[in-house]
Structures are given as structure tokens and as C-alpha cells.
């Protein structure tokens, strides 16, 4: 190994370990359902994004296997050579219907979708107004575009208006975009899209919503844009196929013109192999299920409300979540990590989230209940929370 790389790695890894910020990965030994096995122990799983339990759904497994039998395990090429299978086109039609738009384009992941779509539309002559708590993939997509990035205070429409006015009146930029998560994954709050649309109309901003945590969850399953009835107002509706949908991938839904452009200018669409056919079939099955019935959606919200009420009653600070995402704010980083470790020892897997993912001093254990949890599992989890909370002095 080069001496300089060796020294760089030693120094930086040690620094992370000293600060307690090095994340040791613990593999899950089986399906990522409401109960997971780690190091041979069964734990109540409150850390997955498998909101509707579809990642382990029996019908979707069958669809996946049938597609593998028909098409094979891989798509064989990038979309623009000959990796576009008929089911990729079918999926994109379904996504457009699901999101109430003219067209849609799918990608291999939500992360590369943001990198691709933002940088295909924005360039170094432009500016992007970006909520300060936006996801890392949005930040990276904005950076990749080369546009000027202007951070907007979290959900602050006055700050957005002031910065939109300044950016558009300065004459320095071509296009100006406002970009926001639809649901913020660390706090569970829902973006003020009506407020953002009002500002966007005033200053002709391009609007981009990353609804990774909203699709399947808000808007009776159809997402945050639908929740506010703004399908005609938001220019770019981005989402993932890896969370509530339970599989893998990302997409943008919008006008036919926008999708035509993304199909010729999104680099992962042009240069990275298409989503495997088994995944495509399972995704379509999941979208059908979400569209056909709100049963899983309703169960998810019921479980979210139940867990929130239970933690609140025990005296925990659960923040201001408006969705099933349930943060339990502990505060200091080391205490937060210790809390999560003790929960795991007692039988609950709920990951700690600390700086730099969230601001210093707001460390939290984030709980993601799903439609697949039973009341008994949530009651067991609450008992363990009570025990660990009292032991570590977080509650009385
Ligand atoms: N956007 C947001 C808001 C996310 O939370 C995530 C996933 N952590 C992504 C994009 C990336 O999605 P994926 O995991 O499908 O790549």
C-alpha cells in the first residue's frame, strides 16, 4: 500500500473510532422482517425502511422468481443499449400512473437517481435552494450538478422566499430550483409543499421533491405530493423503490418532456446496467398492492401511533414526527449509542443516529415501526424501552 494512503487511513479511522463515530456493521442472518436475527439472537426490528412489510412478501417473492425464470437474473446491458426489457417500460408506465404524472423514468437506486436527475437538469450557471436537512444523495446530486447551492433553513418558508428573491433578482443564475425531502427521515416531519409551491410560483422555481420516505406512507400510500394534491405543481417527483415498495431502485415522475430529457441526459441511465428483471416484477407487484388497498398503509399508521403514544407515556422525548417514523431523542452522542446498545442486549434493534447525521446534542434512537409488527411486539419493545430508559436515567 502507498505510504501516504496508509497514513491517511490510520489517522482518519482512529479519529472516527476515538469519537465513537465508527459504525460497526452487524449482518442480519435472515429476512429483514419485524423480527431479525443478529449474532444468533432474535430482536424486535425497529430500524428497517420496510414500512409495509413488502420486502418479505410471499406474493412478491413468487413474482420475482417467475420473472427470473422468464428473463434471467440480469438485464444484460444499460438501458440505452439493449438492457431495456419490456417490463422496464411497463414499470415506468405504472410509476407515472401511481404518481399522477404523464411519464416516469426508473433507476438502479434512489441514491443514483438523485445524483442523475438533479445533475441532468441543473448546471454551473444555475442555483439550487436546498433544505438544510435534505438527504445526502440530494446534497451529492446538487454538488455534482455544479450549480450554486444555497441552504434554506429547515422548513422555513420566509427564508425560502428571501433566498428565492435574492437568487432570481441577482441576475447571476439561469434556472433556480427548490429541492426538499417530502418526509424528513430523521424527524418524521412532512415538507410544507403548499408553502413551497406558493414561493415557487412567485419566482418561477423548478420544484423537486424526494419522497423516499413518503411513497407508500403519506397520501394514502401515493406519497406527499398526492397528500397535498400538488401533482400538477411539483415538477420532479422523485422516490425510491427500496423502502415502502420493499425492493430496490429509484424513479422520477413528471411530464413526458422532462422524462424524455432525463432518458438522454441521466448518466446512470446511460452508463449503468438496468435493474434486474426479478426486482422489476416484484416492484410492479408492490405498486399494485399499494394501489389496490390501504390495508397495509393503515396498519403502518396504527402501529406508528401506538408506539408513539407508548413512548410518550413513558416520558420519552419523541420530537415532532408527523409520520410513523418515531425518533426517541436522547441528546448526548455517547449516551445515545449506549442506549441503543442496551436496547439490543435486551431484544430491540433500534439504531442510534448521531452527529454528523443529525445536529450535535440531538442524538436519537430512531424507530421505524412497520405494517408487519404486531401489537405484542410493540408492547415488548415498550417494556424494554422502559427498563433501559430508567436504567440510564433518561426517564424517571
Ligand atoms: N433519499 C432519501 C430521503 C433517503 O432517505 C434515501 C435512503 N436512505 C435515498 C434517497 C436513497 O435511496 P436508496 O436507498 O433507494 O438508494
UniProtKB/TrEMBL annotation:
Transmembrane segments: none annotated. Residues 42-383 form the Aminotransferase class I/classII large domain. Its EC number is 2.3.1.29. Keywords: Acyltransferase, Pyridoxal phosphate, Transferase. Its cofactor is pyridoxal 5'-phosphate. GO terms for molecular function: glycine C-acetyltransferase activity. CDD domains: KBL_like. Belongs to the class-II pyridoxal-phosphate-dependent aminotransferase family. This is Glycine C-acetyltransferase. It comes from Sporosarcina gallistercoris. The lineage of its organism: Bacteria, Bacillati, Bacillota, Bacilli, Bacillales.
Amino acid at each position: 500500500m502507498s505510504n501516504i494512503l496508509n497514513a491517511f487511513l490510520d489517522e482518519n479511522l482512529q479519529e472516527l473510532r476515538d469519537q465513537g463515530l465508527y459504525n460497526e456493521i452487524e449482518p442480519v442472518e435472515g429476512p429483514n422482517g419485524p423480527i431479525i436475527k443478529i449474532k444468533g439472537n432474535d430482536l424486535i426490528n425497529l430500524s428497517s425502511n420496510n414500512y409495509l412489510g413488502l420486502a418479505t412478501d410471499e406474493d412478491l417473492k413468487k413474482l420475482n422468481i417467475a420473472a427470473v425464470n422468464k428473463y434471467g437474473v440480469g438485464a444484460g446491458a444499460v438501458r440505452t443499449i439493449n438492457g431495456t426489457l419490456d417490463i422496464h417500460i411497463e414499470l415506468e408506465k405504472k410509476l407515472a400512473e401511481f404518481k399522477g404524472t404523464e411519464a416516469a423514468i426508473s433507476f438502479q437506486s434512489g441514491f443514483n437517481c438523485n445524483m442523475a436527475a438533479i445533475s441532468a437538469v441543473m448546471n454551473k450557471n444555475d442555483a439550487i435552494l436546498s433544505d438544510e436537512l435534505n438527504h445526502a444523495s440530494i446534497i451529492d446530486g446538487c454538488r455534482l450538478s455544479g450549480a450554486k447551492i444555497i441552504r434554506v433553513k429547515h422548513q422555513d418558508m420566509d427564508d425560502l422566499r428571501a433566498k428565492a428573491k435574492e437568487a432570481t433578482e441577482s441576475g447571476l443564475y439561469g434556472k433556480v430550483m427548490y429541492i426538499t425531502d417530502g418526509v424528513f427521515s430523521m424527524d418524521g416531519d412532512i415538507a410544507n409543499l403548499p408553502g413551497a409551491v406558493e414561493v415557487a410560483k412567485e419566482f418561477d422555481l423548478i420544484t423537486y421533491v424526494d419522497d423516499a420516505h413518503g411513497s407508500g406512507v403519506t397520501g394514502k400510500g401515493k406519497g406527499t405530493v398526492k397528500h397535498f394534491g400538488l401533482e400538477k405543481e411539483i415538477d420532479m417527483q422523485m422516490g425510491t423503490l427500496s423502502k415502502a415498495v420493499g425492493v430496490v431502485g429509484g424513479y422520477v415522475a413528471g411530464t413526458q418532456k422532462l422524462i424524455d430529457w432525463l432518458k438522454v441526459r441521466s448518466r446512470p441511465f446511460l452508463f449503468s446496467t438496468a435493474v434486474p428483471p426479478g426486482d422489476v416484477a416484484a416492484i410492479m407487484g408492490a405498486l399494485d398492492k399499494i394501489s389496490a388497498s390501504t390495508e397495509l398503509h393503515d396498519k403502518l399508521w396504527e402501529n406508528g401511533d401506538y408506539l408513539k403514544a407508548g413512548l410518550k407515556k413513558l416520558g420519552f422525548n419523541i420530537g415532532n414526527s408527523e409520520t410513523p417514523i418515531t425518533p426517541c431523542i436522547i441528546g448526548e452522542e455517547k449516551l445515545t449509542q449506549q442506549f441503543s446498545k442496551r436496547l439490543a442486549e435486551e431484544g430491540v434493534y433500534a439504531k442510534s443516529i448521531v452527529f454528523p447525521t443529525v445536529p450535535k446534542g440531538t442524538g436519537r434512537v430512531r424507530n421505524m415501526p412497520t405494517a408487519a409488527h404486531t401489537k405484542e411486539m410493540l408492547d415488548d419493545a415498550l417494556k424494554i424501552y422502559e427498563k433501559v430508559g430508567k436504567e440510564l436515567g433518561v426517564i424517571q
